[in-house]
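Suppose a colleague, Dr. K., hands you the sequence of a protein chain of 249 amino acids and asks what its three-dimensional shape might be. Before reaching for any lab equipment, you can write down a predicted structure in token form. Begin with the sequence itself:
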Amino acid sequence: MGRHFLYLKESKRLMKYKRILLKLSGEALMGDKEFGLDNKQLKAFAEEIKMVVATGVQVSIVIGGGNIFRGLKGASEGMDRVQADYMGMLATVINGLALQSALESINVHTRLQSAIEMDQIAEPFIRRRAIRHLQKGRVVIFSAGTGNPYFTTDTGATLRAVEMEADVILKGTRVDGIYSADPEKDSAATKFDNISFDEVFKRGLTVMDMTAVTLSSENKLPIVVFNMNIPGNLLRLVNGENIGTRVTN
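The predicted structure, expressed as tokens, is then:
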């Protein structure tokens, strides 16, 4: 416990970022399950986030909804695209509520904001209020994407990061960065430590969707893709360690 306290104390001095936006996929919350939510995985992520909050870094979060419902899949199966996308947005609210519960169970103060008004369970998204929450040390979870169909949660995350004036978007995945090809399918794939937005466009690499990547590039907002499933990675990353792949102009 004493050693952990000393590390957090040192982290406050060394932290690289003042304000971050963490982007998680809905699938990341499934753990070993094939669908839905894994409480063990939620608790593990909550502990990782708590360590970062303890350093004084301001944390906002966007979670996808693919573990429950994915709008594009529904549309591909004949569902109206707009209706399907709204269903996907509601799935992100469920995930936001689940992570909020996991965080508050370990005494991390949070606020859940939704781009679709649902006053009984979440605040409406209000930029100035969200910034004030961050300044007070609360974790702000943004749900329901942008509130509009045809936009992914990647784009929603980038939009919120720009609005919050975040220093970086940290995209937590199950791989340790961006590769020249899918490392799970191609053993010859090579990992990039740093890469430019221009190179991402030229190579057609899957970092986030192109709308999100373009928005990040235009606003000079770096993206770091890293493995969120390795304990301590998030804390080491905000402390400036070279983890994952950094995308910049």
